[in-house]
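Work package 3, deliverable 3.1, input record:
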Amino acid sequence: MNYEELKIKYQKDGYIVLENFFDIVFINKINKIVNDIILNSKNINKNNYLYDLEDAHLQNGIPQVRRIKNPVEQINELEFVIKNKKLLQLLKCFLGANIRLHHSKINMKNPILGSSVEWHQDWAFYPHTNDSVLEVGIPLANITEENGPMLVIPKSHKKSIYNHHDNGYFCGAIKSDDIKIIEKKIKPLLCNIKSITLHHAKLVHGSNYNKSKFKRPLMLLGFTAADAWPLMGIKDYNKFKNNIVLGKHINEPRLSDNHVIMPLPVSRNEGSIYENHDGDFWSIQAKFLSNYDSALTYSELTNFSNLSFVHCNSITFGLISHTSSLPIRNINKLGQVHELGLSKYFYFTILS
Ligand SMILES: O=C(O)CCC(=O)C(=O)O
C-alpha cells in the first residue's frame, strides 16, 4: 500500500499498523539508550520528571520502571527518532507540511508486573482546535497477545467523545458503563519489532497487563498539525514553537467542529493515567469446591493475591467467596485477603 492508501485506511479505521517500517539498527539504538535510562532508575525511589515507577520498583534490587516520561524532549541522544526522514514523510501525508511534536513517552510494561492502561481517548487528555492529532507507536520488542498489546476499537474515532471523569474530576478513563457498549469489537495491535502503529487521538484504546515473561516496551510519540493548538493553553511558548519537527510554526490556529469535554477539574491525586482513579477498590474471587470438607490453600490463591496487591494499584481489600466449610489455610500469608466461606453462611442461617 502506498501512503495515500494507508491514509484512507487510517481515516476509516482510526489506526494503521505498518510492518518493517524501521531497520533493526534504528530500534537497537533506541533500546540501548532506554536500557541505560532504566539502569539509572536504580538511584531513585519515587516518581519524578523522568520516571513513573511500578509499586514493586527495586524490590529485590530490580528496577521496575512503568513509564519513561518525555524521553525525546529530555534525553538529547533520542532526538534522532523524531528527525527520522521516513517517519516525517509518513507524517506529512497524514498531518500536512507543518508538524509539531506534542509529547513522547515509553511504556515499559514489564513481565507480570506491567500495568494495564484503561480505556481512553487521547483527545480527552489534550483537546485541540482541530483533530489533526495522532499518536505513533514504536514497539521496542515484538508485541504479542500475551505481553499486553495495545487494544483499539476500530472506527471509534468517528463516534462519541466519552466522559473521562470520576466523581466530577478528570480521571483519564472511560466509565465502565460506556465500556460495556464499546468493548465488543476489540482489536489487538500485534506487531513485530521494526513496525510502527498510528492511531487517531479520538480512537478508543487501552491495554491489558503483561501476562508473559517478556517485557513490552512501546515508545509513543504524539504529533499534531502545526495549526492545531491545544485548548488547555500553552505553558511555554518558546518550547511550543521549538517543538516543530517539520515545516514551520503557525500562529493562526485552524478551528474545526469537534466535541470536547475539558479534562478539568484535574484529578485530586494528579498523576499518570495509571494513577488517576480516585478512591480505592476491592478485588473479589468466587471459588466453587464440590467437596466442602476440603480447605482452600495458600498456593491456590497466590495468583489472586499477587494480581490484587502487586500488579494492581489502589486495591485495599481482597475477598474470596468459597464453598468450603473450612477456613483458608495460611490466609494470613496472603496480605489483605479475607474470606466468606460456607461456615459463614451456616452461621448466618443459624442466627436468622
Ligand atoms: O501502553 C499501552 O499499551 C497503551 C498506551 C496508551 O494508550 C497511553 O499511554 O496513553
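Residues 107, 117, 150, 205, 207, 218, 220, 273 surround 2-oxoglutaric acid (CB under 6 Å).
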